[in-house]
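A favour between colleagues. Tell me how you read the following sequence-structure pair.

===
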Amino acid sequence: MTALRRDMLKLAGGAAAGFLFTPVPWRLLGDAAMWTQNWSWIPKVPRGPVTETTTRCTLCPAACAVRARCAAGVPVGLWPAAGPLCPAGFAAHHLAVHPQRLRTLSGARSREEVTEKVKQRLDRGIAVLDLAPGRTASFALRHYLHQLPNSLYIESPSVEGSTAAALSGLLDRPVPLALDLARTKTLLSVSTPVLDGWAAPRLVDGGPRGFHLIQIDVAGSRTAELADEFYPKGSDARLLTAIARYILEEHAEAPAARKCADFPRVREEILGLAVCHPLARHIAETLVKNGPAAVVADGDPANGPVAPAIRTLAAMVNVLLDSTYRPRAEAPIPDGWKLAAAHSLAEVPDGSVHTLLVDEPVPGSTLPWPLVQRKLAREALVITASWSSSAAARFAAIALPTPVFLETVQDAPPAPDSCEARFQISRALMAAPANAVEPLSLIAQLAGHEATSASVLAERAAAILAAKQGRLTKPGEAEPAAIEKSDEFWQALEGGAGWQGDWQGKVPQPARLLPEGTTLAGLLETITAPRMKVPGWRPSAASPLLAKLWQESDLRKAPGARLS
C-alpha cells in the first residue's frame, strides 16, 4: 500500500491533537515549575510563628520607620510604621538574598590571614575609603584609625548634599550644611530628584508639600510630574547666571551677598552679561517674592552629579537669596573618641595609597573605579568589605563579605534635608553569614581593640542620653518619650524610636560669592565638560524585581533618563 501525502498529514494532525489532549505535556510543565521553585539556592519562607516588630530602614539617610513581619524570626515583608515609605524600603529585606550578594571571602583563606597581610604593610600606612560617611561606624573608624600610624580616612564624594558642600566652601567659617526644607517656601531644583529619593518621604510624600517646587531637568521624571513647575532643560549655567542677574538688577538688595569680599567684581561680571531670558526672569521673581527660597543642583545618583560649575553657580544664587541652607548638627559621640581627620578623595595625592580598605555597606554607594584607582600606588593592596560581588569587589585583591541591613545593628548617615541631629537604628532580625566581616571590627583589631557595630552604637547611645538634650519619639506617637535609663533608651531605639536633637546653630556669613581664583567667565567656559557617570541607583539595587520594574517599565520613570 502506497502512503500518500494526505495520509502523512492525517497522521501528523492526529498525533498533534492527541498530544494536546493527553496529560503528559501539562504534567511535565507543572513538574518543571515546581522543580524550579524548589532549587536549593532559592530562598524559602521558613515555617514557624508569624510575628511583627518595628525598626528603621537604614538603606538611606531618611531612616523611615518600618514594620517587619517575620516568619520563624526571618523578615518576609516590610511596610510603613509611620508615614510614607519609598520602594526600596518595601523590598529592603530582599538585600540578604540578592543574587549579587557577596557571600564568600575571596583572595584569602580566612579573616586572620587578611589581618596578617595588613599588619605586614602597616609601616606604609592604611587608608579607609568610607562609601557611606556620617554613620556611627564612620566615627568609630576614625577613632581607631587615629591610633594607627600613617593612617588615612577618606570620605566618598556624594551626590546628595553636594550643593550644600559648595555653599559651605563660600562661608567665612566652613561648616557642614543641610537644606532646611521645613523653612523653604520655594525650591529651584536643577537635575535633582528632590521628590524621588533625595528628600525623606515624610517631607515630600503622603500629603501636601510645604514648598513650591520648580524643576529643571533634561527629561521627564516622577519629580517633574509632581513639581509645581517643570521646564525640560538641561543643567543650564547661563540660566542660573541670568537668574542671578535678575535678582541683582530688579528684585533683591542681597544684604548678605554685599558683605562678600568679591561682591563688586562678581556683580559687575553678572550685570555685564547681555542676557534676555524670560524663563530666568520668571524664576527669579518667584524665588524672591515667595521666599525664603533655595536652589539645589546636586544631580541624581543614576546619572551622577552635575558639573562642578553648575554647583558653584547654584551656591552663588543661594548666597544672593540668603537661602534656607543651615548648619547641620551632629549627634553627640563618646568623649573618649579621638577622631582622625576626614579627607575628601580629591585631597589624596595620586599614587600615594599602599593599602586601601573600601567600606561599601549599602547599595548605591559605588564610585567609578578610575577615581579610586588613580590614588593607588603601583603595588597597592586593595581590600573591599562589600555587600555586593559586582561593585568595588571586582577590583580588589581581597573581597570580604559584610553584613547587610537586618543582619546587624546599623544607623543612617545624616540626611541632606535635615539640620537637626538625628539618631535611629535598625535592629538585627536575622543572622549574618558565618564569614561576614565588619570593616570596623577589622580596623579596631589592628589598633588592639575589639569592637562591633552593636558595641559602638551602644556607646554612642549612652553619650546621647548622657548629654540630656533632644527628644525621643516612638513611631506613631506625637509626644516625646521621657526616658532616663540606658537600657530603656536602647530598647526604644531598637523598637523603631528616633532621637532628634534641638537645632541651635547660627548661620555663618558668606565670605565670597565665588571660590577664590574663580571668575564667572571661566565657569561658563568649563560647562561643556561631560558629566561624571555614577553607576547604580540606591533603591534599584535593593531588589532584583524593583530594579527591573524601575528600569524597564512605565510604572516609574527614572530621574534624568529618557522616557521609554
Notes: DSSP finds 20 helices and 22 strands in the chain. Residues 529-540, 548-564 have pLDDT under 50 and may be disordered. The first helix runs from residue 5 to 21.
